[in-house]
Design goal:
This protein has 113 residues and is an all-beta fold. It is 0% helix and 48% strand. It has no helices and ten strands. The strands form two sheets. Strands 2-10-9-4-5-6 form a six-stranded mixed sheet, with no helix packed on it. The protein has a four-stranded antiparallel sheet with strand order 1-3-8-7, with no helix packed on it. It is globular. The protein starts with a strand and ends with a strand. The mean pLDDT is 96.
Length: 113
């Protein structure tokens, strides 16, 4: 079965950094676009970043220039490097494989002083 396991969240001060990881199994990772999404309490889930299997990346305007998505196909892992974090980034972060209706458990990111 498909498994997506997010990790790396935590509590960080504004301006700090975190690196999220998502380990995928049960799918041919290299052929899927992978994405990071987030959901804050009372808000709709939103796309943060997407990295296609064909190269390049797409970012939400709110994180452009601060976050970087990357992937290591040999490790079946997608990463999200988050720099200059803001309180507005506080949310549960999920990774997702394009075309699959499946999500991991998410990892909590809290940005607070």
């Amino acid at each position: 079965q498909v498994q997506l396991v997010e990790s790396g969240g935590g509590l960080v001060q504004p301006g700090g950094s975190l690196r999220l990881s998502c380990a995928a199994s049960g799918l041919r990772f290299s052929v899927f676009a992978m994405g990071w999404y987030r959901q804050a309490p009372g808000k709709q889930r939103e796309m943060v970043a997407i990295i296609p299997n064909s190269g390049g990346a797409n970012y939400a305007e709110a994180v452009e220039g601060r976050f970087t998505i990357s992937r290591d196909n040999a490790r079946n892992t997608v990463y999200l490097q988050m720099n200059n974090l803001k309180p507005e980034d506080t949310a549960v972060y999920f990774c997702h494989a394009g075309g699959l209706d499946f999500w991991g458990q998410g990892t909590q990111v809290t940005v607070s002083s």
